[in-house]
């Protein structure tokens, strides 16, 4: 009987480590996607300022909604990365002492859905990166400095030549941000209760407010998993 209990404990420990690894994977995907946005899609904020003053850190791209939207997504991904990493560390710490079955199942469900959503975000950001028609800008037009062609009445020709052809869909990105916020709340909650004993974990999971938090995260995931394009058609 002791050997059976020991085997069961080892299996639970291994299962918890798998959950921790998944949380770490999600954190890394969020971080790499944020870096992809910052390094390949966002030009220096100073180039979008209409004045000689330093750009506003809270709104570095005031004249370009698509860049402003991507900048916000990159910031949210980095914040989310911290919550996912913390959860992974907490699960690892708790793996030896035990994770209640009801909590383990909830963790598995939340992590699976969240990872799927983050993977979609990453794929869509890579789509923007590889589509030359998206974020194609006329720097002079964006900074507000007229070119000689514009000064001479060639505004229409210059706009046709260098204007953005397609934009980032702000509504879709908002759904991405909502998913990150919803699962940040879930991960913060899980990080707090996974470190208590199994009995307390089960008691927490039985509370109505916990079900509401998890349901909101599921709803946010449903929208992202619909697979809408981040690029306006």
From TrEMBL:
<feature type="region of interest" description="Disordered">
    <location>
        <begin position="41"/>
        <end position="67"/>
    </location>
</feature>
<feature type="compositionally biased region" description="Polar residues">
    <location>
        <begin position="144"/>
        <end position="153"/>
    </location>
</feature>
<protein>
    <submittedName>
        <fullName>WGS project CABT00000000 data, contig 2.1</fullName>
    </submittedName>
</protein>
<feature type="region of interest" description="Disordered">
    <location>
        <begin position="137"/>
        <end position="164"/>
    </location>
</feature>
């Amino acid at each position: 009987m002791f050997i059976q209990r020991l085997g069961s404990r080892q299996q639970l420990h291994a299962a918890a480590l798998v959950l921790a690894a998944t949380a770490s994977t999600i954190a890394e995907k969020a971080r790499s996607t944020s870096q992809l946005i910052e390094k390949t899609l966002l030009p220096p904020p100073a180039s979008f300022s209409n004045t000689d003053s330093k750009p506003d850190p809270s709104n570095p791209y005031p004249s370009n909604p698509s860049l402003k939207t991507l900048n916000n997504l990159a910031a949210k991904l980095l914040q989310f990365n911290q919550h996912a990493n913390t959860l992974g560390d907490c699960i690892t710490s708790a793996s030896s002492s035990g994770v209640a079955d009801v909590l383990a199942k909830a963790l598995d469900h939340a992590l699976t859905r969240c990872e799927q959503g983050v993977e979609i975000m990453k794929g869509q950001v890579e789509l923007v990166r590889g589509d030359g028609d998206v974020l194609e800008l006329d720097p002079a037009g964006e900074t507000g400095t007229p070119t000689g062609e514009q000064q001479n009445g060639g505004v229409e020709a210059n706009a046709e030549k260098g204007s953005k052809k397609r934009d980032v869909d702000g509504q879709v990105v908002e759904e991405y941000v909502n998913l990150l916020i919803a699962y940040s709340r879930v991960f913060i909650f899980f990080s707090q209760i996974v470190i208590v004993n199994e009995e307390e974990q089960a008691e927490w999971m039985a509370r109505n407010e916990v079900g509401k938090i998890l349901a909101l995260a599921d709803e946010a995931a449903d929208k992202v998993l619909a697979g809408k394009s981040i690029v306006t058609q």
